[in-house]
Amino acid sequence: MTDVVRIDNLNVTFATDGGAVKAVDGVSLRVAPGEVLAIVGESGSGKTVTAKTILGLLPETAIARGAVILSSKDGSNSNDVLAVSKQKLRQLRGTDVSMVFQEPSTALNPVFTVGWQIAEGIRSHGEFTRKQARAKAIEILGRVGIPDPESRVDYYPHQFSGGQKQRVVIAMALVLDPGLIVADEPTTALDVTVQAEILDLLRRCRDEFGTAIVLITHNMGVVADLADRVVVMYEGKIVEEALAQELFSNPQHDYTKRLLGSVPHVGHGTTRASARLAAREPDWVDQAPVVVADHLEIQYPGRLGKPGFTAVDGVSFVIRSGEVLGLVGESGSGKTTIGRAMGGLTRVTGGSLTVHGHEMNGFKERAFKKVRSDIGFVFQDPASSFNPLLTIAECVAEPLVVHGRAANPRAARKRVNELLEAVQLPRTFGDRYPHELSGGQRQRASLARALALEPSLLIADEPTSALDVSVQAKVLELFAEIQAEFGFAALFISHDLAVVDILADRIAVLYKGKLVEEGTGAEVLGAPKDPYTQRLLASLPVPDPAAQALRRGELLLLRAAG
Amino acid sequence: MTTVAVKPSVPVGGRVSKKKTSPGGGIGRYLLIRFLLIFPTIFILVSMVFWLMRTTGDPITAALGGKLPPEQLAERIQAAGYDRPIIVQYFEYLGQVFTGNFGTTISTNRPVSEVLLTYGSATAELVFYALIVAFVIGIPLGMVAAYWRDKAPDAFLRVFAILCYATPVFFAGLLLKLVFAVWLNVLPVAGRSTTGSELQLQLLPNPTGIYTIDALRTGDPAVLGDVLAHAVLPGVALGLLTAGVFLRLVRTNVIGTLGTDYVDAARSRGVNEFRLVSKHAYRPALIPIITVIGLQIALLLGGAVLTETTFEWQGLGFMLIEFIKARDFVAVQGIVALLAVIVALSNFIVDIIAALIDPRVRY
Amino acid sequence: MTTLTTEATNVPKAPLWTRLPVVHQLRQSIGLQRGMLVVGLIITGVFILTAIFAPLLAPYGYSQLRGDNGLFGAQQAPSGEHLLGTTVGGYDVLSRVIWGSQTAITVMVVAVLLSIFAGVALGLVSGYFGGWLDRVLVVICDAVYAFPALLLAIVMGIVISGGRSDLFGGILAAAISITVVFIPQYFRVIRAETVRIKAEAYVESARVLGASNGRIMFRHVLRNATRTLPLIFTLNASEALLTLAGLGFIGFGIEPSSAAEWGYDLNKSLSDVSSGIWWTSLFPGLAIVLVVLGITLVGESLNDLADPRLRSRRAPGKTAVAPITPAEIRDPAGRIDPSGIYGSLSTPRVRSDGLESTS
Q1: Strand, helix or coil for residue A63
Q2: What is the ipTM of this complex?
């Protein structure tokens, strides 16, 4: 049977501000009909560019060489996407190959109904009346699992939830029954529980529709869950290609091994945590805790008659000195709000929250200022965590200058150098500007800034979520080492249970503003009591295809039950 | 006149956005707020004008200062009430504005509202033609420029748009006059119509003041032709200025939406390029475009003053200048107040339209 | 402690002169955008030089009516003596055009200086602190700048000098009216930028630290918010000139005995046109068009170049391959909402001249 797509020696070069960049370097691969091929790699590996080339969707600044032979679903027609005319290319798109995008909210046009958008795709490929197109749209919406498609077909995108939007995007890709779907990080922007559902849907595409899928992702768990074959890319080249099970059990290339080794597993941290607990002094439990939350409530005020939104609803927890509490939840759970409240960025509206003995409900800035020197904060987005006009040294010295430990950044340079070394950045980096550092380097510098005043409490809000897997692993390891060395208490916020497991002594799970589970890693991850935690845990894909298949079965049972 | 504004960055909520169940009351509340804002807007502008004008003294002295002996002057001032405390006059004036009473002109001794109505229709007609020119030229060309982005047609169109903006309305008018009215002699030099037609129009019962409509009502094609011929040059002069603005506006916004993910997604489904530009990219771009068009009314009104002067088009702008020369500040105040009201109202209307187009506000 | 490889990007620092604002953009641009920038800079340069060296360049004074051979005579066609002819009042057109550039540049400078500081300061404070002050200011500014600048200028003209003006009065009238209308423009843009930057992580980081508001505003917000200023600056300058010319055209211009002003000349040439005399209107008009064209070209290309989305880049293959900077950050999810209607009371809008301000 002819391959659905065959790529021969593809080379793609881009024009950027810094000159020409080779994004894809001599890549060759094939996808058989009905097969799921996963292309794995980190940022800059060239995987997205390769995928977009299959649809001929490269921007004008790109030059592509080689051959990308695309065949229709029944195998009768074959075309070289790179050589074919624009007219023909347009015809191929949607009928032979289609794409599912990463961010569902931006992949849908906000001013047209979803039905209209689906119908657009249909009517671009043949003579269909409006009625026919609409009927097809309703049908496909139903098949991807949108309830009540007859009326939902006239809804606007913003009326759907994130997961439903992604279903709509998949429906648009499927409607003309293409032989191949290219899915570019289809679940990265979704919550874990929703991700599991979308992966199910994609599997159905393969099984029921017979569509082949090229799955672009950096998430090894997703690969283990869905892929038949895997291709690993690094810096524009393919470094390894194998069947899924083979790759995970017996990786050949060094990079693959490193990649697999960087993936956090649930359960990794248990031994470490118990060791730390054992190493603490006996009366540690009785010491005054650093943070106490008691029925904490944070409500955002409503606007002009609209009711307020309760982000945090009656949450209670304790962080003792030197302890790391991992706060886990999906979006809308309130975890970031709690972190911000602890840092004095968001007001507490009910209950009590004491930080270093200072009550945050109704706090006065003047009194709190002294306490601020004892708190460090690391933010999520490395791209905006530094003032682009200041050097790294000036940024890291800021806490010292603000709290009077140094007169100006220059005077603080010695201390800045010490801090940079502590986070394993060379001293010379202090003279660089933020845009000259990579994401991982910036997060490390961010950590250095947070540690400048030797705080006894560090709040880290998803510090590694925006980083590549291997970089994330290094930053987390650094974090763990520094925490062990300096001994500060920490609140580590994340949506990823596995990441939290590496660092945390205790884990708290949040769901829609409420605390549903709390305990040590072993307790929460090993034997979760709350159904939400169980579902959360079961939805998290593990990087092992066989094990993942078992877990899928368990998840189905859980969903049926709850 | 150009205005500057910026798009806000409102990040799309969270990783999983909650299903929006906001009721249709969303749009009602929004429009109510916009409506309420009309009043402060008018209030601020009218007050500004009042206080500015009054710094030159009371209107009667300004207008008739050198012409009447002091006793008569004082008499008149007292009769008109300009000797009362200024604050009292101010509040009385505000009240009058909101009831539509703009006072009486000093130079011609007619109610200002009558002046506004008579000459306002002339300006309305001019602005109408200018808008037609602007829409017909500006918007399609803007789309063409977006389609041919960064290639020769786009370059040419961008320079054309900048030239439209850079050429003062009166200079454009002068050039048009020179070429078409003097050298080529195909179009009339000035005015709204020949005296003959004008007489005919005035003979109509209840003339609307809008010559095109009135000409249609006479049923005489010669009159209609005459009126239209007179409207061409002024309409084009004023319209070109706005066309340039529309062109750049449409171009920038459509290029902006062309770069979005959803257009890329549509492209991946095989929609052809032309349809991408004319439908998928165009409609979302309309929202900011329409809001800015509302602001263009102000530009048009300012331009109308200049155009009317150039072509002796007897509209509000032309009369405004005449009244200023005559130092008739009551009339000036009235005209400016009316213009402020028009500006505020058109902004509101435009907000309504934009809100109607954007489904996110509706549901 | 494991040794983390320092993924050092050894990018050598480019020499200082290439990093200066306009030079940097000039080198970065290619093709059409570079063409626009170059043409704009040339025209603007010529304009500025003409204004500075007007006394040397102009053959006669701006109010000179007679020369060595007696009176110039009115409405003379272009000739050897008067390269561009004479006006109805008997002045030399070429000289009036050249001297007019001085008037033009003066009004531009005054207008910009008056509005920029107030507008930026207000926008910064209003955007940073928010609350009632912010809302009130926004309503006021919305009202004011929606109003036709020319009409405001007329009113100002009356107030300042009762209509007929000398150089100082005329320039001040135009400049002040432009200021009144442009302060809201600066206010709007700076405020929007301030609001956006306030939400960035580095500002929040400074707040968590406990840095004072003043420090945050100046060190972090202001310096990053002024990125789009050059653009409005050029707009401001063009508007000032157009308004001055408009005033002159209506009859509120500067008397020829005080200075040369292009709008005034156009006003006087209005009647000439009907008799087919073209040189008295064409040249002053062209001067206005060229100056505004030049300035706007510079502004528009700077705007294009500042926005990475609009910037064109050299096609690959034409330059040597540069070292690849490792990009470890995945694309942040979430896009900019183009509508924002549900936002603050004042609906932020794209600039009415069509240029999209980057935010």
Answers
A1: strand
A2: 0.81
